[in-house]
Amino acid sequence: MNDPGLDEPAQEAAQDVERNVYEEDQKQAEEEEQSFLDPGRWWFASTACPLIAGTFGPMANSFSICSLVENWRVYIPPGKDEGHGEAVNDPKC
Question: Taking a C-beta distance cutoff of 8 angstroms, is the pair 72, 82 a contact?
């Protein structure tokens, strides 16, 4: 480009073309990644989450029943560890 004053506009046009092509390629790659990941996410949301909840729900219920039956509080005297703690009974009304 030997014409005076055309270097900057030509350079800007070249950068615009390069930037637009890169943005379109990046957008297409993101769409392909989304379409690849969507079935896995749907499976996790529709299958894995209910299975996990179905597994841990009854276990949590059994823990709540055990907490009503067992004494969970322990007094640990100074200088001793929890293996030598004294059980604290729940207060009765």
Answer: no
**47 burial level (CB within 10 Å; 0-12, 13-18, 19+):** exposed
The per-residue pLDDT for range 64-75, each reduced to its tens digit, is 888 787 777 889
Residue 16 lies in a domain: yes
8 Å CB contact between 88 and 70: no
Residue 69 located in a structural domain: yes
Say whether pTM exceeds 0.70. Answer: no
Q: Whole domain around residue 17: which residue ranges? A: 7-87
The DSSP call for residue 75 is E
Q: Report yes or no on 93 lying in a domain.
A: no
> Which phi and psi angles does 88 have, rounded to 5°?
-110, 120
- φ, ψ dihedrals at 75, nearest 5°: -95, 125
Looking at the 3D structure of the chain, how many domains does it have? 1
